[in-house]
Write a structure and sequence with these properties.
This protein is of the alpha+beta class and 630 residues long. Among the domains are: 185 residues, no CATH class; 45 residues. Strand 1, helix 3 and strand 2 form a beta-alpha-beta unit. It is globular.
Length: 630
Amino acid sequence: MADQNEKSKGVKASRRGFMKGAALVTGGTIVGVGAAAVPLSGDKVLEMPYPDVPENAVTLPNNGKTVVIIGGGLAGLQAGVELSARGFRVTVLERSGTPGGKCKAWRDKKFGPEDDPAKREPGFPGYVREHGTHAVWGFYNNLREFMGRYGWRLMDMPKEGHMYNFVDKDGAVSHLTNSRMANPYDKAELLADAFKMGHLRPEERKDFIRLAIKLMTFDYADPKQREYMDSMTFAEYCQKLGIPDRITNTICNGLLEMAYFDKVQTASAVTLANIFQLIAGSGDDMKINLYGHPVSETFLQPMVDYIRSHGGKVLYNIDVQGFEKEGDLIVRVITGEVPDELGNVRRCAVCGNLILDGQERDDECPFCGANIEMAQMLTPQERGKQIFEADFFVSAVDIPAAKQIVNQNISVLGDSPYFRNILDLKTQSVYVTTLWFDGKGFWEEHVKDETGTRPGICFFATGFKYLGITINRSVRINFPDRKFTISPELADRDLTFIETQIADAQSVTGKSTQEIADLCHEELKSVIPNLPPYRDAYVNRWHHYNGYGVGIEAKRPPIQSPIDNLLFIGDMAFVAHPAVFMEKTNVTAKTATNILLDKCGITEGKIKILMSGTPSVAVDALKAVTSVYI
């Protein structure tokens, strides 16, 4: 590749340049990123917990146009809400029996030991079982704007309640705290934390800062920078930069496993570069909030109710298999048929897969691990072909479903690079394992935050074979202003729920729930020596997270497909905006809404899409002395 430094800013990274840049970091105001950065004082809206954009708050009359949204995950529901508010008649078709996609939650009456007294209570609804605990970063400005506009709120996490606790198998402990200082001192505080990281030797800490500075200058919206970082793994990028392997394989790998369920040796460098770009703004950009518990009742079902209250439909157990065109446009989608010779067939309400008699394994869905009671027998209507017509179609499904539907309909959609690229997308697997323990106190004794006195909400496990980010869903923490708990219904119970997200799914593929639980329990005991035997366990097996291998970023489909009335949204889609994860689902949903308004010639109701993160004059100054290029 040609000398990218000359193409970017004509500035070579040098030790002198780095030291000058480091001085800017420690002495300047690090409050964000982006080519169009402006002083923080000019963007007060972005500092709000729920950015207020009055022009986005509209309710328009019915415009006579219909939209079918394939997929009832976050992207599909958010698009359904925005389109419903702007006069479109929306029908959301969801393959499973529960909304939310990767953010879903449901209740499991079977989880827990048989002698659990709660199970004897009349009307016991079951314990909340989640896809996995999901965090909402401070830089999710568009998702927060959406939630605030419709009155849906996150848990108000205390400022002292950070999640960046690192625990290594060798016993090393590190903390990156939420800033307690105002700009411009917040980044100096963060750097001071980095210089105290127990995972790194003193001589390695400057290298970590050097890496962080390089990554903070990344601009995802610049196609040349995006291509450069997508051309190598993160480990290769660190090697070129001369970063010691200990940094790459501890702190960076822990962050990558938490965010992308991948490893530095296989994920492209664009992954953490995008994260560092987004958290390089104000101290609040690193702050994490959680959805109100449970997310199914505080956020997902309210979106479903909103769509229905505006004349739309949200339909479950609808598995779209086919497209039909007339001329150059899609006119209808068709569900698959289930032949009578297959006998009794159930569909898992959690993952949406069909389960034939005898396929269940240990009373679990053989595909996702949900309790088999979540499988529902197909009705005669659900076994037959169903047809849904509309003016516009929006695909909001995950990568496996997108690949399946494109592969089955390539002759209808057209054998174009756009659809071929979808077939080349990769996925990552994660096994979310939750263990039930009787009693409390053992986690609180051994897992502490930076004060050494309060229990930590979670820890990033580094150096372990099985443990990933590990969360106590039942912990109750006393902060200066209030008590905090993730799951209020568990906080006052004498029990402990510990969730760990196993990013290296290949290491446990094919193992039973008990075998996986035993492996996690054994490693947990190295952190919590007095951990008692677990009483029950479940494992959610997910195989649909975005893969970020080298070169994959260039294959993501833009929102507008070659077919004028067919759009693709969600975190698998491409948009030239540095959004990630749930923020990206929101940005693509809003962008698709604006596209459909334009297609219909409707000028009112266009959604203003905010910058993700906070703008920074200091990071712009860093770009004058260094860049992401090596």
